[in-house]
Design goal:
The complex is a heterotrimer of chains A (627), B (284) and C (335). Chain A contains 19 helices and 27 strands. In chain A, a hairpin with a 2-residue loop joins strand 15 and strand 16. A five-stranded mixed beta sheet of chain A has the order 22-21-23-14-24. A four-stranded mixed beta sheet of chain A has the order 1-11-10-9, with no helix packed on it. A four-stranded antiparallel beta sheet of chain A has the order 4-5-7-6. Chain A is an alpha+beta fold. Chain B is mostly helical. Chain B has one domain: MetI-like (MetI-like fold), CATH 1.10.3720. The longest helix of chain B has 37 residues. Chain B is globular and about 75 Å long. The longest helix of chain C has 38 residues. Chain C starts with a helix and ends with a helix. The chains are: A alpha+beta (627), B mainly alpha (284), C mainly alpha (335). The interface between A and C is large, with 79 and 75 residues.
């Protein structure tokens, strides 16, 4: 018996020895010239298919963020719009029926063919004429004619006046990209065409990919100077870039701790674990709250305004006032979020352009509690409460008021359960002997809050924090995490849901049309019918009027855009179809063992995510450490 | 009582019986819990075990000790329901199929095999998604029972098959004993150890399945069970954050529960089986 | 001839019926879940950032319904499904549109088969051998110790066990890679480098599965052997002075193997579910996560593809075992 054991031991020892000798995660690639990033969206389902114009195709595996240049990109950290394949702003005719776009010269596709207006014309005609593409309907509805005006200028004749037509080419997290005509024109069926290998105008080209979908490897082009990135910012730092998917967060953290992963998105606890154990690991902010807080989205929850009693704005306000935001923020995200009392996040230029000008109005805004009583809900001291909570938890918070404002927001609503109670009683609600709330018809009030099932997602965190607050208030609230959350909210089969309370703004500029369009009355559908825009099923003639005015205003007229935007925000604030809580926070960690000069909060030269489009513009700034 | 004393002579029974008794008391303590398990934030987060919080607190601000009492109680409820209901089905199917033979046997075995063959995991996942928050303890127990009887039905059937051919059965049948009486009187003594050990195995399997389902995010996370407590600890990265007291509690409790059930089943079936009873304690 | 008519034919009919029923069940159940795959795709596109204005979305819904083959009533879809399946065409995956289901399965299957097949067989072999010996010598101290060890290992939640192994051997002591089936940038080829790479990546997942699987098989086999050991004919053989070697191999093991072989068939059948958590912890590219994602996203075609293959595989395994059983067990032969 021992003889067999000896062989076994030798075999295992041999395996171990050889695995030490073997290479780490990379096969034959120089680690110090390679940047390893984690895939945000998980394993690639269609590894050999790079046709990003149909379906999803995991664009963030390097297509949108490395190899494909859009006409323009939004960088929400700097608030800039970056010219990619376009050479400048679009030029509209005065009636908005015609637009011309200047294109950049000196750009070549990664296989060497020069980029010209022919590619743009080809792309738009193909998308307009072929059903099955994601953007087919948009172009079919809007474009009569597209034509080139010289090699580097493109013109469009539109079916209807649309001052925002060009925004389809503006990359925020997806847009209409340009196809290489010389590759697509010979293809019989462009819908099932796999476009493998991917060819783009970005500074990197496809090297190889995992047929099982766990990694995609990109290599710097030799002619990187012929990509807009190279033209604008210079040579990218890393020679190779890998996007790798991990199936669980523990593995991601361990990978980063062993210097096999340079940038990764984690959860709140994952971030804490990585920072605690890694000596070369840093977060976006160098100190508490650490998080990426300039991601242009506002989180919170929405009410189903087509269902009683949530069709009553008093009830919605009561539920909002029943929330102690300090506890709520502590429960959901350990205090790390930036509060916002309006339906846009408090970041970038939005506080200056919208929230601060509104503060006077916010402070004056009054709710009628019935019996002649009134109440002013706005509380400019709410962020101070969150700061006190954070300090109580042992975190170090900066004393600088500007830093505090940018990290914790300008204000929120008061925690006013008595006012909430009065609002409810005014509308026929009552409490029983145990303090539990009853609906006007006498039955116990039960709220089901739906959210997606992923425990680290902010929908989940918001929903479970809201449930805890309402339970304390005396309502039988229950959290229902489910993977079918998207369908359920589209169907209208819910009371309250953890969806974002408003559509995400651009993150740059002052055009809030996107934000308000979600409440367009055209998208309202009754409960039981699927709606794809307006989950809360709220609309009002006033909001529709705001939308109409925005459509008719030139987006370049900043003052007018801000004024109308503020009007829209006031309407949303008064009606509260959804409650905004804090801005989206990302938990990004960077390992500085191999690469440094990341765009942290102290040096925000670019947006910090590696999966967003503008990441390619970060690559020329990353510096190797020499390890 | 003599039975109990005899059983206790086997150290395995003694230990497992004690553990189970302690766990039962632990579960019953949940009735006295000062905290509602569905409320969070009633304690300071992430505290180590101390005199105020015997097992510390977790990242949701709950006292782990009292949370665990509910967890053990709920897991026991699920596994008892799963185990007993599936026993009833398995015994009925196995006995009838084994004894009757012929077409009844074939039909019943066809049904059993269909259940064995179904990717039961997949179906549990699908059904769990279908039911979402209506997945309470009883429903989960019934769901697991529905899929846990097939294998044991087959086992019982083959035991009955071999018993059927034996001398005593033929004797009893020939002397005119009715079927039901025959089944109860002649088969049960041999089948009971089998039924009992499969019951306990099934309970242990149910606990394991419940933990797996919770880790995959399919259970109702608001209801504290061993599985959901573990899943919360995992999603809050307890392992990498060093919150060992939160992680170890459900694991140690699950191990204790399983060990107790396993030793209990082994020692009781050895006791009930006349051949091994004398061997257990050295032939006394 | 009698054997054929009385045993084989009914068994074959049962085989076909079970497959038919199983596939039908898996066809219909997902269609009763509240999630609509078309809506899910659109939700996914939106959540991953495509700004689709609501007007275009309505147009997309019609397009997608047609491309997914969701037109027509459920019965019509059912009929169309059986028409396609005999050519091995399970349609295209909804969520990974437009990749055909068979292609997705083909890419992931070798990893699953390679890792899990070997782990299951290995743990079965080790567990059966050690369990058999421990069952026979159940009075010895080493047998009891092993039993206690196995008993403590078995209920450990697999996720924690696997994650601990990962942390111990990929972080604390950096011996093995953290994720994946092979190194990044490694092209699949039949050379030593690739094979070695695959082995390195498979070692930890295999170790975790083998350890836990062996514990379970060990205990099961031990119990079976103990029961057989207590049978009269074994006692008689011992008293009759038959050589111990012969008793162990001819009397005990041979009888204990029968239920164990059935166990192996079933274990192989349950591969997919057991594999799921392994693949999650070690980011291993197998069918388990593919199937789980399919279930969660309501990807009917992919669910059908993987499940149909698994049902056929398990039923065939059980059929083979059942047909081979009479050769080993004379008692069944006479029935």
């Amino acid at each position: 018996m021992w003889r067999q054991f000896r062989w076994l031991t030798l075999a295992i020892a041999g395996a171990m020895f050889l695995s030490v000798v073997g290479v780490g995660q990379l096969a034959d690639l120089p680690r110090e010239e390679t940047l390893i990033l984690s895939m945000l969206t998980g394993r690639v389902g269609t590894p050999s298919n790079f046709n990003e114009w149909v379906g999803w195709e995991s664009r963030d595996r390097g297509m949108q963020n490395l190899a494909n240049e859009p006409l323009w990109s939004v960088d929400f950290a700097t608030g800039e719009i970056i010219n990619g394949l376009a050479a400048g702003d679009p030029v509209y005719s005065s009636n908005f029926y015609h637009v011309e776009i200047p294109l950049r010269e000196g750009v070549a596709w990664s296989d060497g063919t020069p980029f010209t207006a022919d590619d743009v014309v080809f792309t738009v005609e193909l998308l307009r004429d072929t059903p099955g593409f994601n953007n087919h309907a948009f172009f079919a509805e809007n474009v009569v004619l597209v034509y080139k005006m010289g090699d580097y200028r493109v013109g469009f004749d539109l079916k209807q006046a649309n001052s925002r037509f060009h925004q389809t080419f503006l990359d925020r997290w997806g847009c209409t990209w340009i196809m290489p005509k010389h590759i697509f024109e010979g293809v019989a069926d462009p819908i099932t065409f796999e476009f493998n290998p991917f060819v783009g105008c970005g500074p990197y080209k496809l090297h190889s990919y995992d047929p099982a979908g766990y990694w995609t490897l990109w290599e710097k082009r030799a002619d990187w100077a012929k990509s807009p990135t190279g033209i604008l910012y210079g040579e990218p730092g890393p020679t190779y870039i890998v996007f790798q998917a991990f199936a669980n967060e523990g593995a991601k953290i361990v990978a980063q701790l062993t210097h096999q992963l340079d940038a990764v998105d984690l959860s709140a606890e994952g971030l804490k674990a990585a920072l605690a154990q890694g000596k070369t690991i840093r977060a976006y902010q160098p100190s508490f709250p650490w998080v990426v807080n300039n991601d242009p989205a506002i989180t919170g929850f929405i009410f189903n305004t087509a269902k009683a009693p949530y069709d009553n704005s008093d009830v919605r306000w009561a539920l909002t006032l029943a929330i102690d935001i300090v506890e709520y923020a502590g429960q959901a995200v350990d205090g790390m979020g930036t509060l916002s009392p309006v339906h846009i996040p408090s970041l970038g230029s939005y506080p200056e352009n919208f929230i601060k000008p509104m503060e006077g109005w916010l402070k004056q805004c009054t709710l009628d509690l019935g019996n002649g009583e009134t109440f002013k809900p706005y509380d400019p001291d709410a962020p101070a409460g969150v700061i006190a909570y954070a300090q109580g938890r042992g975190y170090v918070v900066s004393d600088d008021p500007a830093a505090q404002e940018s990290a914790f927001g300008l204000g929120w609503f008061k925690y006013a359960p008595e006012a909430a109670a009065k609002l409810l009683k005014k509308n026929g609600f009552s409490q029983n002997a145990d303090g539990k709330w009853l609906l006007p018809d006498g039955s116990p009030w039960r709220i089901e809050v739906v959210s997606r099932a992923d425990t680290s997602h902010l929908e989940f965190k918001n929903a479970s924090a809201a449930v805890q607050q309402w339970k304390q208030f005396g309502i039988d609230a229950v959290h229902v995490p489910t993977d079918a959350a998207a369908t359920i909210t589209q169907n209208g089969d819910f009371d309250v849901a953890g969806n974002w309370p408003a559509q995400e703004p651009w993150g740059a500029g002052v055009d809030l049309y996107r934000v308000f369009d979600v409440w367009n009355s055209a998208y309202v559908r009754p409960i039981g019918q699927l709606t794809n825009g307006n989950h809360s099923r709220w609309s009002s003639p006033e909001m529709d009027a705001v939308l109409a005015r925005l459509r008719a205003t030139d987006p370049a007229d900043t003052a007018a855009m801000i004024a109308i935007g503020i009007e829209g925000l006031k309407i949303a604030f008064t009606e509260m179809p959804g409650t905004p809580t804090f801005g989206y926070i990302g938990f990004v960690t960077w390992d500085e063992y191999y690469w440094t000069n990341w765009p942290g909060s102290e040096n925000p030269y670019a947006q910090p995510y590696s999966h967003w489009g503008p990441f390619k513009y970060m690559t020329p700034f990353l510096e190797p450490t020499g390890n | 009582m003599k039975v109990l004393r005899d059983l206790l002579k086997d150290y395995r029974f003694a230990v497992s019986f004690t553990i189970l008794l302690l766990l039962l008391i632990f579960a019953l303590l949940s009735a006295f819990s000062p905290y509602d398990p569905t409320f969070w934030w009633h304690a300071v987060r992430d505290l180590r075990p101390s005199w105020t919080h015997f097992l510390g607190t977790n990242s949701k601000g709950q006292d782990i000790f009292w949370e665990a009492t509910f967890a053990v109680r709920n897991s026991l409820i699920i596994s008892v329901i799963a185990g007993t209901v599936s026993r009833v089905i398995a015994v009925l199917v196995g006995m009838i199929a084994g004894h009757r033979g012929g077409r009844t046997d074939r039909v019943l075995m066809f049904v059993t095999d269909s259940f064995l063959v179904m990717p039961l995991f997949l179906i549990i996942v699908l059904l769990a998604m279908l039911v979402r928050e209506r997945m309470n303890l009883v429903n989960l127990g019934l769901l697991l029972a529905f899929f846990g009887w097939a294998w044991d039905a087959r086992v019982i059937r083959s035991q009955i098959l071999s018993l059927r051919e034996r001398e005593f059965t033929r004797t009893a049948a020939l002397s005119g004993t009715k079927t039901l009486r025959l089944v109860m009187k002649e088969y049960m003594p041999f089948a009971t150890p089998l039924v009992f050990s499969t019951l306990i195995n099934n309970m242990a399997w149910a606990i394991g399945m419940e933990i797996t389902l919770a880790i995959l995010g399919l259970s109702n996370m608001d209801v504290p069970t061993l599985g959901t407590t573990l899943q919360w600890a995992i999603s809050y990265q307890a392992l990498l954050l060093g919150l060992w007291w939160w992680l170890l509690t459900p694991i140690v409790l699950a191990v204790l529960l399983f060990v107790a059930l396993y030793w209990l089943s082994v020692s009781i079936s050895e006791y009930l089986d006349p051949r091994t009873r004398t061997q257990r304690v050295g032939g006394r | 001839m009698r054997f054929l008519r009385r045993y084989l034919l009914p068994r074959l009919i049962q085989y076909i019926l079970v497959i038919f029923l199983g596939i039908t069940a898996v066809f219909f159940i997902p269609r009763f879940t509240p999630s609509d795959p078309v809506q899910r795709t659109i939700a996914q596109l939106q959540s991953f950032g495509s700004y689709l204005d609501p007007a275009s979305i309505d147009a997309m819904v019609a397009d997608l319904r047609e491309m997914y083959g969701l037109e027509g009533s459920m019965l019509q879809q059912y009929g169309a499904f059986w028409g396609r399946v005999f050519t091995g065409d399970f349609g295209v995956s909804f969520f990974q549109f437009p990749t055909p289901v068979m292609e997705l399965i083909r890419t992931s299957l070798p990893w699953t088969a390679g890792l899990l097949l070997w782990s299951t067989v290995l743990s079965w072999v080790i567990g059966t051998v050690t369990g058999g010996l421990a069952g026979y010598y159940s009075r010895r101290r080493w047998s009891k110790t092993l039993d206690t060890v196995a008993m403590v290992i078995r209920p450990l939640p697999y996720y924690i066990f696997a994650l601990t192994l990962l942390i111990l051997f990929a972080y604390v002591v950096r011996l093995f890679p953290i994720a994946g089936g092979a190194a990044i940038g490694r092209r699949a080829a039949l050379n030593w480098k690739f094979i070695w790479d695959v082995l390195r990546h498979a070692f930890l997942p295999a170790l975790s599965m083998v350890l836990l699987g062996t514990a379970a098989t060990f205990q099961t086999m031990k119990l079976i052997v103990q029961n057989v050991n207590a049978e009269d004919f074994v006692q008689y053989a011992k008293l009759g002075g038959v050589k111990e070697r012969r008793i162990v191999s001819r009397y005990v093991i041979r009888n204990a193997m029968l239920p164990q072989i059935t166990n192996l068939a079933l274990a192989l059948g349950q591969i997919l579910s057991g594999a799921l958590i392994t693949e999650i912890v070690f980011s291993y590219p197998g069918l388990g996560t593919l199937l789980y994602n399919a279930v969660v996203t309501g990807d009917y075609n992919l669910i059908m593809g993987i499940t149909a293959i698994s049902i056929v595989a398990i039923t065939t395994a059980i059929l083979v075992v059942d047909l081979v059983y009479p050769l080993f067990d004379p008692r069944v032969r006479l029935m």
